[in-house]
Amino acid sequence: MKGHPSGPQGPLQPPPHHTAEVSRDAIGRAAPAPAADAARGRSPALAVAAVCLFPLGVPAIVCGHLARRRWRKGEVTIDMVDARSIALWGMVMGAMMTAFYLFAAVLVASTLLT
């Protein structure tokens, strides 16, 4: 049958970005081999937790830092490259909320002490 995927060449092969030999990140750099933790999805969960916990401040910064560290160690796959930017946004928003809480605490303390 002409044009059928399992023609004379045999069954279709997966695209090259799904193989370990050609694993690259969004910029084109060679990505490290995925680790066992990446299969369980720990790093993306931490990145999402960083964004979800930003109203609490410090926990968002910690989760974002841990997610980015796991990305640098190579515990994430090519499908999880966006977790790095999600973790960064969680850290930034967590830092802004921490600064806001400190400013509010100083403002309330100065109001109560005068």
Short description:
By secondary structure, this protein is mainly α. It has four helices and no strands.
Separation of termini? 88 Å
The total count of helices amounts to: 4
Q: What is the number of E strands?
A: 0
Assembly classification: single chain
Largest beta-sheet characterization: none
Radius of gyration: 22 Å
Low-confidence spans: none
Q: What overall form do the CA principal axes indicate?
A: rod-shaped
Order of helices and strands: HHHH
Approximately how much beta-strand content do the residues carry? under 5%
What value does the average pLDDT take? 75
Structural class: mainly alpha
Query: How helical, in percent, are the residues?
Result: 55-70%
Description:
The chain crosses the membrane at residues 45-67, 88-113. It comes from Actinomadura sediminis. Residues 1-10 have a biased composition (Low complexity). Keywords: Membrane, Transmembrane, Transmembrane helix. This is DUF4190 domain-containing protein. It is built from 4 helices and no strands. The longest helix has 32 residues, at 82-113. The mean pLDDT is 75. With 114 residues, it is mainly alpha-helical. It has a domain at 32-107. It is rod-shaped, with a radius of gyration of 22 Å. The chain starts with 35 loop residues before the first helix and ends with a helix. It is 56% helix and 0% strand. The chain has helices at 36-40, 42-52, 58-73, 82-113.
